[in-house]
Amino acid sequence: MSESNYPTAFGVFMAPFHKIGVSPTVLYERDLQIIELADSLGFQEAWLGEHHSGGHEPIGAPEMLLAAAAQRTKTIKLGTAVNSLPYHNPFLLAERLVTLDHLSRGRAIMGFGPGQLLSDAYMLGIDPTKQRDMMLEAAEVIVRLLRGETVTEKTDWFDLREAKLQVRPYSLPELDVVVAAVTSPSGPVTAGRLGVGMINLAATSPAAFGALRGHWKIAEDEAAKAGRTVSRRNWRLSAITHIAETEEQARKDCTHGFEEIWNYLAHISPLPASEKPDVEGMIDEAIESGSVLIGTPDTAIKKIRQLADQTGGFGSFIMTLTDFTDYERQRNAVTLWAEHVIPEFRGQLKPIREHNAWVRGNEWKAETMAAINAASEKYAAQQQPVSVN
């Protein structure tokens, strides 16, 4: 596998999955502080999700928190992962993302999907069997609006008449747009038809991992049909991730909230429920199945290389952070990732290691001591009294 197929951009994603029983005010502040930390350590992207029920994922308006993050960060890009398009008038959502793009000086990314939680769709009176069609209808309109077009489009759930954004995105040539995918083909079909990026969530889980190569082929095929192109540099993979100094410490960290969060995930997603009698067994089972990436920086490096082999290459890897661990251990995981994983794939460590080996492999000490002695002798000679006849 060529190094050019490995990701060179990295990010953090918080759906978020928080434990029940903590003030949402505190949780919002912690999420923002994680984004600040990632920005200070050189991560390229930060993502927040949109959910409206369930309790564990309390962010209903990710673009609002990202606007706050924009004022507290310098370079990190800020993405919605993802806006659930069937829940929004496409014109108004496009306006909000353009506003975020200006507030962040061109750092906004619009991630979109059909909506994950059936409970959200139920509360909004939306038929879940229509959500993917609704997503595509809205996405086509939003992309046209963001590209400066005037749109007249009527469906059974929105009606736009000569709609045109009065404020264009700050980003040039256009605001970055990304569609979510897991196992269904709807994500790559949309990415290809619209010529936008793609983010595959839960990419290490067995079903999603198996779908990766096929997803990219679908995206390329659909792009060709539509006369568009897709780039692997704009393909992101994400997985539930926690790393620590040792494998044992990583597992220990996750006993904090793994059982609560995993049982919730098994209730709302294709991830399988565990029948293990204790949390340690649940953690081991999830690691062995590939459903989570839990271990050390070396574990993460190995897994990313496996993902590159499976896909043929992708552009960014996004850490999905959860309350498997407490807040301080999440911060530690982000720091370890910046110290060891990012520089491995961005080529920053190789020349340092080569120089270290080069210096250690040569006998510089004798020459250094000889130079010191020569300088000392020269100085001593210069101090000898001059004879006067």
Summed up, the domain count is 1
Largest sheet: 8 strands, parallel, barrel
Order of adjacent strands in the largest pleated sheet: 1-2-3-4-7-8-9-11
- Any idea what the CATH architecture is? Alpha-Beta Barrel
Q: Spell out the helices and strands N to C.
A: EHEHEHEHHEEEHEHEHHHEHEHHH
- Which structural class matches the secondary elements? alpha/beta
Describe the oligomeric state of these chains in a short phrase.
single chain
The CATH H-level superfamily is Luciferase-like domain
Radius of gyration: 26 Å
> In CATH's first tier, which class applies?
Alpha Beta
EC number: 1.14.13.-
Domain Luciferase-like: 10-309
GO molecular function, one term: monooxygenase activity
InterPro entries: Bact_Lucif_Oxidored, Luciferase-like_dom, Luciferase-like_sf
Question: Describe it for me?
Answer:
Helix content is 48%, strand content 17%. The protein has 389 residues and is an alpha/beta fold. The protein has a single domain (3-350), classed as TIM Barrel, CATH 3.20.20. The strands form two sheets. It has an eight-stranded parallel barrel, surrounded by eight helices. Helix 2 (62-70) runs parallel beside helix 3.
